[in-house]
């Protein structure tokens, strides 16, 4: 899910950078917090007020969104199907894909609408939350700044959690390679994590994005090559459809849901992509950039999941590359490719939470200590992700935990809550269908969060 980011300070007349991150510099003091009448809201068109340095076409926006949604998570889909079965996995992926797409739609639609109310050209995720609370029911307005900070930190922790998952994949992949060539080695998981700690500490000290961004393209090429090699092995004499169960015990379903949501959600990059479109009105709607992209994503994830599950069944690992025979050259290449790709993805992903954390803490640090404070902060969080990786046993269980805990909140619950709050005083639709729909989504997201976390923790304890 790596994406390139350019950071720039903004006011309410924003100039959005090419890669479209809208940082959390718009606060309640720069947002018009008074609710407008419908006719006054329509006077302001946020799309016409955006000043884009390099606006993206619909095709380029589609490519950026596809790139952000298609990452290493697709390699975890066979393990997800292992916790669902063939038929349940297929229909479950389609249903979850539709739900995730609709929640992304709610986030973007709410952001566009609240921009119109607040008279700002565009907003990021955290700023959208702040503006929704600031222009919502009066009893909630005092929470607006707190909610922006809360979502900021939730986003940072989510990406740091993903970084910990990357470290686990790095360790398991390298361990397989080393064990193949040196069977008698006595290295354990902790030692492998310590081996990765040194290069991670070095590369995460890079504070200028222009030195990191080129690695993104290289990582994407390696991921594509890895994906093709995996398809070659998967499609080579895999069992019949009837050889795998159509459904598995329902108690394993939360792990399936958490893994699919982790793999599919690119909630953090959706608004940056929409914010940089030359014609942002083409992002939503039918067909629309969002619907076309997510249709392709769901189909690819479903195909990878079912084919990988038919091939490897209950031994499918958290990344399908771990199932490939290390003794064969193409498989060994795939494992080396995924190590390099994930390492560079880690470095790029790590940049984003560090920007968020620093943005929320730099005011408390004297300016003369900014450089050393940033270095200490980056080292601390890098070490934290490695410690988390060393403490957790299995990749697929951690992916399920990350998806259930973080992505269900940011991807399912938060967009539904924002839509409900924004519409509360502006109309909940005929028969209050918005209230009913959003409540169902919030309940579902909460169910995924609670059951997914419980089941993942249970599996982690069992494995230990």
TrEMBL record:
The keyword Transmembrane applies. Residues 57-457 form the Amino acid transporter transmembrane domain. GO terms for cellular component: vacuolar membrane. It comes from the Eukaryota. InterPro entries: AA_transpt_TM (IPR013057). It is found in: Membrane. The chain crosses the membrane at residues 87-108, 149-169, 189-206, 213-234, 254-271, 283-309, 329-352, 372-392, 404-422, 434-454. Keywords: Membrane, Transmembrane, Transmembrane helix. This is Proton-coupled amino acid transporter-like protein CG1139 isoform X1.
């Amino acid at each position: 899910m790596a994406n390139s980011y350019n950071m720039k300070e903004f006011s309410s007349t924003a100039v959005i950078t090419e890669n479209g991150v809208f940082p959390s510099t718009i606060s309640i003091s720069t947002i018009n917090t008074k609710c407008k009448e419908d006719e006054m809201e329509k006077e302001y068109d946020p799309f016409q007020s955006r000043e884009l340095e390099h606006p993206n076409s619909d095709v380029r926006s589609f490519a950026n969104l596809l790139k952000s949604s298609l990452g290493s998570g697709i390699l975890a889909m066979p393990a997800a199907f292992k916790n669902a079965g063939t038929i349940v996995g297929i229909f479950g992926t389609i249903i979850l894909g539709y739900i995730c797409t609709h929640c992304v739609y709610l986030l973007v639609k709410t952001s566009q609408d609240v921009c119109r109310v607040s008279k700002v050209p565009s907003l990021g995720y955290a700023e959208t939350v702040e503006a929704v609370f600031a222009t919502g029911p009066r009893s909630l307005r005092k929470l607006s700044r707190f909610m922006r900070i809360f979502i900021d930190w939730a986003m940072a922790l989510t990406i740091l959690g993903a970084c910990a998952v990357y470290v686990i994949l790095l360790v398991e992949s390298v361990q397989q390679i080393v064990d193949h060539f040196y069977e008698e080695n006595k290295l354990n998981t902790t030692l492998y994590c310590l081996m990765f700690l040194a290069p991670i500490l070095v590369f995460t000290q890079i504070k200028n994005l222009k030195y990191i961004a080129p690695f993104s393209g290289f990582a994407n090429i390696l991921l594509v090559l890895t994906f093709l090699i995996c398809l070659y092995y998967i499609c080579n004499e895999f069992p019949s459809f009837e050889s795998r169960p159509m459904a598995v015990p329902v108690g394993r379903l939360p792990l399936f849901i958490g893994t699919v949501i982790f793999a599919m959600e690119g909630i953090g990059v959706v608004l940056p992509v929409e914010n940089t479109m030359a014609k942002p009105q083409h992002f939503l709607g039918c067909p629309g950039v969002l619907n076309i992209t997510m249709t392709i994503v769901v189909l690819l994830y479903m195909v990878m999941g079912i084919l990988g599950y038919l091939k490897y069944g209950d031994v499918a690992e958290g990344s399908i590359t771990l199932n490939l025979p290390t003794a064969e050259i193409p498989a060994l290449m795939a494992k080396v490719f995924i190590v390099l790709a994930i390492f560079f993805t880690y470095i790029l992903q790590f940049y984003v939470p560090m920007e968020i954390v620093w943005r929320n803490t730099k005011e408390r640090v004297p300016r003369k200590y900014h450089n050393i404070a940033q270095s200490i902060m980056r080292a601390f969080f890098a070490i934290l992700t490695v410690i988390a990786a060393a403490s957790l046993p299995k990749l697929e269980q951690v992916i399920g935990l990350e998806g259930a805990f973080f992505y269900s909140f940011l991807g399912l619950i938060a967009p539904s809550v924002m839509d409900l709050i924004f519409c509360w005083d502006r109309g909940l639709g005929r028969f209050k269908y918005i209230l009913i729909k959003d409540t169902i989504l919030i309940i579902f997201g909460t169910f995924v969060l609670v059951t997914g976390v419980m089941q993942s923790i249970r599996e982690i304890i069992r494995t230990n």
